[in-house]
Records
---
Amino acid sequence: MTQFAIGESDFLLDGRPFRILSGALHYFRVHPDQWADRIEKARLMGLNTIETYVPWNAHSPHPGTFDTSGMLDLERFLREVADAGLYAIVRPGPYICAEWDNGGLPAWLFREPGMGVRRYEPKFMAAVRDYLRNVLGIVRSLQVDQGGPVLLVQVENEYGAFGDDQTYLKAVADIIRDAGITVPLVTVDQPVDAMLVAGGLDGVLRTGSFGSRAAERLATLRKHQPSGPLMCMEFWDGWFDHWGGRHHTTSVAETAAELDALLAAGASVNIYMVHGGTNFGLTSGANDKGVYRPTVTSYDYDAPLDEAGNPTGKFHAFREVISRYAPVPDVVPASGTAAPETSAALGSPVRLLADPSGWGAWSAHEAMPTLEILDVRLALFQASIDVDGPALLTVEEVRDRAYVFLDGDPVGVLDRERHDRALMLPRGRGRLEILVEDQGRVNYGRRIGEPKGLIGPVRLGSAELTGWSACAIDLDDLPHLLDGRTPDAPGVGPTAWRAGFEVAEPADHFLSTVAWGKGIAWVNGFCLGRYSRRGPQETLYVPGPVLRPGRNELVVLELEVTVEPVAHFVARPSLGPLEL
Ligand code: GLA
């Protein structure tokens, strides 16, 4: 069997120096029927390894579960990497950052009072142990020393940017070793002295995350990793976008020159990302360094392979750079062609507020519960109010957006990005309804693990407002909730539509959302993700394998208002303006 080890100055594959030329490709952001295509194209760029994170919360949506079906079939993914003749790096967290909801930590963990977050706390450690045993049960037999592709396993992720609990970090490494992982372990940190100290472990190779100034970053890394190979575990070749922000790209020439400098210095690399893919469903995360900024649905990342898997200018430039250091296959993947264009009228509207009874399970609560208690991302709350009006409605913090209605009429919106905390209700009597939306959990920094909903007591004047009914809106099942519903007259509040459209063959499509407000879309029951008129993203990627020849069904849940109730599938993606 192949042996992979850390030498004095190099990785050693069966005793011979080996440079890792890796690209990040997250299986959970790509339709499984497209994995092989993306992996093969990464190989054609000259890479010899594919790296992936593992998202705990996607595999364990509920306590005690570990789902490996469909897009979560890690074993199939790693086997496809091996079948392409490539090696693999696995980064199972438990925290992964990655612009992924909650940085991968399951929201249900934090329903338990006192649960630790990324520190040595018994309840957190017990959950981490269960999770890592499940993942590593898959990875163990796929290690290179057992005939599989896996060369390295990473412990945690940029831990030095978060904490300094060495007991925790060491315990995570011990759990990984105890689960039968025999290949070398690594940590990754930004190349800052304090972070490399807090995030590193003796006996575990330190690597860095950076996208520029390779010589200087590698010198910092070398101070903390006096021997062994130097590796940039995240060579950032692009960046991600936030709703309401600009679309990020990087110069092809400059990024290629940075890659060249890194390879010229003799380092190993994991290009983050070689192919970004998509935050399908409600999986995108958010940042909050004082202002909450949710991440968009596309994870194109301006990577060498775009969101639809087509080679870009960066692909060709990187391939050329890599060819100076390693053999690169002769074949070049074909460029993408325009997507089929078609339109479909959105059918009759079904309004949530017209008859909210059937949109999910209802429960009664004295104080307003968090969304984690209800186990949903979107909930409708109702209460009766009876005070002399106008009346001031206040909360401590809105997470993340609340639409307020009085007797069915919209009276305002509370938004986290604006730090809204108060709304003056025009009357003090009537049926108060509040739709609360989680727009993505923070994936970096201190706010990981925080609850969603209206935080702190909800007050009317100085008194806490109690006696709530809550509807946990079942978004997974939303397309089916429309079955058999009688259409409503158009009106205010969240509205769902269905539209049938014809497809000649199941090729990739791009759904334009420019005429819509803010909501979520599904095709044939597959959740494409969120859309927002704020942009920058103006199209949603529809992977070909989700479609079928003949009739297909689109479902749209619009939380605000559409200009035009028509779905347009357009020839190319639009990820938005590069400047604001
Ligand atoms: C860090 C994290 C990654 C990702 C990138 C930004 O390096 O480790 O998970 O969040 O930042 O894309």
---
Amino acid sequence: MKTLFANWKMNPQSEPEAVKLARAEDLKNAVIIPPFPFLGPVKKILKQAPLGAQNVFYEEKGAYTGEVSPAMLKKLGVRYVIIGHSERRRLGEDDAMIAKKVSAATAAGLIVILCVGEPAGIYKKGNRATELFIRKQLRFLKNKKNLIVAYEPIWAIGTGKNAHPEDAARVAQLIKSIISVPVLYGGSTNSKNAKSFLEKKEISGLLVGGASLDAKEFLRMIKIAERF
Ligand code: 13P
């Protein structure tokens, strides 16, 4: 059974909506990843799905306005944390910061979903350019404990243009050759294309954005993931 990670991003807009969506998606091969303010309320109602967070800081405590520590997440019952999503890299997170976050979060016992993926300009240059780009993003990794890598080509996120499943499987295999951890695919996945990714042995699950906000669509994807 493969797993679907529901990255809700900055949605939905209220706690009642978040709790309702979490209830609908609370299945054992799903991981629910809501915005920070909804972690507590969502955790309270989940019976099967583990909880994830979308970001974390690398320090344990102190004068870091707006940041949240790995221990704070652990205390809320969070098991997974996304680090290095392209939407955060775009806001200024670089590999050095991402490396610190990964080591602090994994050391605290959180399972990190480290996101990597090339922009459109690199993709257009071909497989070799993509490979070099991904290698560079993974260069800092030393330890595979508590680590999952998500391959999310930036041009495929929220665009309706998913990667070719063969390309995603090839990059997943490359990632595994660098560090042998489970690899997810993310980028415009839905119930129509989920099977084409999930049937690849190199791909252990999907990091789902937009489709995870539609409970019916997400449940259709869950049913597909149960078959693999
Ligand atoms: P979409 O599924 O909306 O393309 O988002 C993918 C993503 O960024 C998951 O982290």
